[in-house]
Queue: 4 jobs
Job 1
Amino acid sequence: MSDVYDLHIDTDVTVQLSDCDREDAQAVFGVLDAVYRLEDMTTSAPQAATGPSPTVWTATFDTAGGEHKEVSPARLSAMVGVTLTGGYHAVDEVEKVLATGFDVQSRHTVSGDQETEARLLLASR
């Protein structure tokens, strides 16, 4: 394994948003993008869903990179379910950033050896 790969294990956080529309997904990812470097996104920007299937927006952020700008509260049209997956410290940092932009309710946490998964519910402040 390379040293670069080892470094990103502890700093990358995968963010999954569920049951939300395109504008709400953009609002959440916009808050995180102001602070962290976007590593990967399923599409270049959330697109409108078609059909009756549920939509999940996914992006990966590097908590060690980025501009680390101040975050302003963002508006959501409805509550947004969020799942954060990554190293303990990195997930904790992303949760703190989300708390500056939204009202955050912790729903559930699953911890493993190297990673943790946090499930949150976001609402406008």
Job 2
Amino acid sequence: MPRPKKCRRLQCRPPCSLFKPNGIPSVELEKIQLEADEFEALALGDVQRLSQLEAAASMGISRQTFGNLLASARHKVATAITQGQAIVLPISNQ
């Protein structure tokens, strides 16, 4: 039985709910779901340039978990860009 998922502190909110290639209707595109914690990991690690330790502490998770989230998010974004897919971003609860 897997361990229960630890609560994560999320501060970043996406500016939109979908990011897609230009000129192609979204109904015609394959979509990749980017989870809220993956979006947060990208924002902290790649945009704010925090170290993995700092970013993990900010989210309230281990450094290893942060690294796994960042790797997963980068893979999804790279796949979407290279294969012309849409990225579905987490919906913010404002």
Job 3
Amino acid sequence: MTNVSNHEQNVIAAAQWLADQKEPPAMVVPTIRKRFSLSAKEACDACALAQKYRINRRAFG
């Protein structure tokens, strides 16, 4: 079993939350930084991961 750090879990949670939003907030990075207690880099990583989630949902349903 892989040991995923709490920060990585927060990035994944933020990405999932962001991918589920019909209309992402206007200021995405500050919003998810505050909501999920992320650094700027982690928030950007979450945005990139959310985009991958959206693409996969469109491709695979």
Job 4
Amino acid sequence: MKSRKLSRTRRRATILTAAAASVVAGVALLPNWSAGAAVVDDPTVDAKTKATFQKLADAFFTDRTDALVDGAQSKRDKPLTAGFSGHVKLSSGLSRTEDSARDTLEGRKDKLASLGEEYSKANTAVTLNATRVEGRRATVAVTETTTLTYAQARGNEPRTTGFQAGHELTFKADRHGNWQLTDVKDTDSGLAVNTLSKPAVKAPTTADDGDTMPNAPRAATTRNPVAVPKTGTTYDYKAMAAYAEKYWNVYNKDYPDFNGHGAGGDCTNFVSQSLKAGGWKHVPGYVYDYTKWFGTADIQSDSFVGVNEWSWFAQNSKRTKPLANVYQLEVGDVLQMDFDRDGSKDHTMIVTAKSGGVPYVTYHSNNTFRRSVASLIASYPTAYYYAYRT
């Protein structure tokens, strides 16, 4: 049977109907943008845009830091990030998240104040390290450098504390080619005082030979314990502190830099270097043997660079003894933390100052100068703490 011919009118109606259907189907394939809106090609990121990325990042972390400073937020009607609009700005979603984050940090400020620690001013600066653009997404690596001034410092109390922290920022472009900051992630251990991210933790560590490891007792965190002054003269504790404060935000080329190499980073390597500067001697041998301790530019024992392995060596060698309370720590002593309380220690720090009964620790990953033990306890109240007299 031959096919029937459509009339001219019916043919025209059929064509229009099909065209309309194709338009409707095509709409489903387009981004969720209003019909007829101008859509630019994948935008480029020029030097001016990169500079604005950096300025927005600077405002973002300044807002966070100021939440910890007495009176800083009340001096402004709105966050610094609210002043960005147009080509580069904060997304509405991240803006809401940061409102909550700043409220939490203000709560941390109040907790610190109850422990006798307040900051009178702060300075935050952000440098842009690298920008990677893929279509309508830009990933920006930055380094934050922050200095906080302790309020009402007296006598020999430290006047400031500071840290460096790496971050990764994600910007996404809208249909007009305008960039919005949608996400911020810490790229190191997340130990800065103005961060809310969880610190990196190490997997539980066991020795190859199956020996029972020396188990350090936990230290209490209550204020004003019975003092335990240092009486030994075997080591130069001032030299330990001087080394740590010289290299807190730089790296001695005589040793490898493990910052950014997974959980744990460079913290124990840095503390071992400081102890060595104060007189700890090498114990050469097999790198995996926790009873050995040595570190050079070319080779390091696990006990020189590993958090748990250092603890095992320190106790087995009798070079340290445990302290019952973190506030008993003195200059040259070592503090470790177990963030998730799984029995495997995650972070190592060295005391470089003490005043008013409060020890101040310096460490790598994040690189931090003279952070008070009170600040650590306020930020990580559920962590386990281990205090070592060197």
